[in-house]
Amino acid sequence: MTADNMSIVPANAEPVSHELPEMHENLQSVVYVIDGLMSDQHAANIVAIWRVGALLTEIETNPDKYLTEEQRTNHVSPSSLLYQVYHKIYTPEQFSTALKLHENYPSEKAIEGLINQRCPTKPNWRMTASHVQLLITVNDQEQRKVIENRCVHEAYTTKALSVELSELHGTVKKERGPVAPKGLKQQVYDLLEHQRKFIARSEKLWLDDEGLYDTLMNSPPDKITDTIRGYLAEIAENCDKLIDVVQTHQHLGKKIAEKIAAAETESSEEEEPAVEPEDGEEDNFAAMTKRNHGTINR
């Protein structure tokens, strides 16, 4: 295989833009290929999310096809089982986004039409998954189509689209003046308050004689579902992390206390000045010493 055969650059590749800086035609071809690859990546991301939404719609529409007899009897949701499988990787919000994307663009033709739109004046602009996630927050189909077209024709960045949707939803944040940073006293108090709340909630809701752990201990084994067991396993892992966190708090707190104690000791020593003899006292003391010395000699 020759070097030419190994090249990833097609012979008929064209520059992606007429505004490119001066460069060799081979480098222009590389730019063209990279643009194509990145476009494919954006499209693949959106299609993948859409297909997840299609699968979620399918299993919720035809649950009998995807559940065991026992699960159907207990009215288990197929989606909840998927959430259990992926709960450490994906959030429920991500699944909700996929469902909503499929709901708003229910056919492959619709989602492909969304992906393939191009800005007339900026052909390099692409619709990304972030754009799509923002667009599906608009529930009104006609209104969403208007904003979608504006997004494409004006080549909105995701930030620009977010600002427009904020104005639409009436959630534009008012500009605030500079906020003064929290003082040291307030920061320490915030830490103390977080500790107090966690301890209080633990004692009242979870560790009490009639709290969560007591309820779990008295529940039949079949009530402790796989989902609950997964949560408990993660809680156990977090408790191990909390032990390390608490020990770190204790260690740092002890170092700060030692530093304060050392500084106070040093300060108290500096605040005890040597007693200076008043005017004339030094001469009197010297004369007294001489007299005493003479008495001793005698």
Structure, briefly:
67% of the residues lie in helices and 0% in strands. With 298 residues, the chain is mostly helical.
Structural account:
By secondary structure, this protein is an all-alpha fold. It has 3 domains: 8-169, no CATH class; 191-224, no CATH class; 226-266. The protein is 67% helix and 0% strand. It has helices at 3-6, 25-61, 69-73, 78-86, 92-104, 108-115, 129-135, 141-153, 158-169, 184-206, 212-217, 226-270, 281-297. Helix 2 (25-61) packs across helix 5 (92-104). It is flat. The chain starts with a helix and ends with a helix. The relative contact order is 0.05. Residues 1-18 and 284-298 have low confidence and may be disordered.
Tally of structural domains: 3
User: Which outline best applies?
Assistant: flat
Over the alpha carbons, how many angstroms does the gyration radius reach? 36 Å
Could you give a short account of the major beta sheet? Answer: none
Number of helices: 13
DSSP E strands, number = 0
Order of helices and strands: HHHHHHHHHHHHH
Into which percentage range does the β-strand content fall? under 5%
Helix content: 55-70%
Structural class category: mainly alpha
Mean pLDDT: 79
Uncertain segments of ≥5 residues (pLDDT<50)? 1-18, 284-298
Distance between the termini: 120 Å
Keywords:
single chain, mainly alpha, 13 helices, disordered C terminus
Topology:
Layout: H1 3-6, H2 25-61, H3 69-73, H4 78-86, H5 92-104, H6 108-115, H7 129-135, H8 141-153, H9 158-169, H10 184-206, H11 212-217, H12 226-270, H13 281-297
